[in-house]
Design the sequence.
């Protein structure tokens, strides 16, 4: 299929991009990597009046340190850059690991961090990783800049707090957490995850702590209409030692927080079962990393 007719405009600055969006309130779409938008255009699932190309907006690029140990990542950063960047691997290795699981090489070379977050696919790896990392999402529009927590940015299926005349500019990630884990199941490498779980143990803003689950964040993806904090597991883990028994009990506690879909690839019950198993795996990974950091 071919997309419906639209006007194409390429912005060279952030201010120009915002002005172009304001010219067609609610009827414009932003083109970054295009890995999600272009198929939706071709299937006529979206029919924008204007397509605003931001690929040449230099203000939206770059991976730089933020604070003592944090990280700022521009929205136009490619998935492949997240995987390859020494700074990301040093300061946010969970983000690099999540990006490694996004699609295939061709998709990682073209797709962007900002595009993945703005698209807000509930089975996507990067939104879940940033929610687990307690990241802040920086957006800007004609009313000026805004800073949102990842908790408040994702609102539902393909829905975020981003207004129609705003652009996602960058993401800021706090200091690297001492313990983290990532686990997902897909039918084939590069496919969307049937289910996945991301775990962060230890407060990223506090000194290293023993592997007791202090400040746990457990996030599921592919198990609801957005990346979900699995609060039952988080409550169970607070202040306890992470061992195989604890991990198994935490996994068993996630089912009530999940609301997965059923489709040709798997039933809702199957995805809940995957969330249980993957929570246990990710927790044991995170506890091992936390223990190693404490030593």
Sequence:
């Amino acid at each position: 299929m071919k997309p419906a007719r639209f006007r194409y405009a390429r912005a060279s600055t952030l201010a120009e991009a915002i002005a172009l969006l304001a010219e067609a309130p609610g009827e414009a779409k932003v083109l970054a990597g295009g890995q999600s938008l272009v198929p939706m255009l071709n299937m006529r699932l979206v029919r924008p009046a204007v397509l605003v190309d931001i690929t040449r907006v230099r203000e939206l690029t770059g991976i730089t340190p933020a604070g003592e140990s944090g990280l700022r990542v521009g929205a136009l950063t490619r998935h492949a850059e997240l995987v390859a960047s020494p700074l990301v691997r040093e300061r946010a290795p969970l983000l690099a690991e999540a990006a490694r699981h996004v699609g295939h090489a061709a998709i990682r070379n073209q797709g962007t961090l900002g595009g993945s977050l703005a698209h807000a696919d509930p089975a996507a790896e990067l939104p879940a990783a940033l929610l687990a990392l307690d990241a802040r999402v920086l957006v800007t529009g004609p009313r000026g800049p805004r800073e949102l927590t990842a908790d408040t940015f994702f609102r539902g299926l393909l829905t975020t707090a981003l207004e129609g005349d705003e652009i996602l500019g960058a993401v800021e990630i706090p200091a690297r957490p001492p313990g983290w884990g990532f686990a997902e199941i897909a039918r084939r490498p590069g496919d969307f995850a049937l289910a996945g779980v991301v775990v962060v143990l230890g407060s990223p803003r506090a000194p290293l702590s023993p592997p007791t689950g202090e400040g746990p964040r457990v996030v599921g993806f592919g198990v609801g209409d957005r990346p979900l904090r699995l609060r039952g597991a988080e409550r169970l883990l607070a202040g306890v030692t992470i061992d195989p028994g604890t991990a198994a009990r935490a996994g068993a506690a996630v089912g009530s927080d999940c609301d997965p879909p059923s489709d040709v690839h798997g039933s809702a019950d199957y995805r809940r079962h995957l969330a249980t198993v993957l929570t246990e795996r990710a927790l044991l990974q995170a506890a091992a990393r936390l223990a190693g950091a404490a030593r």
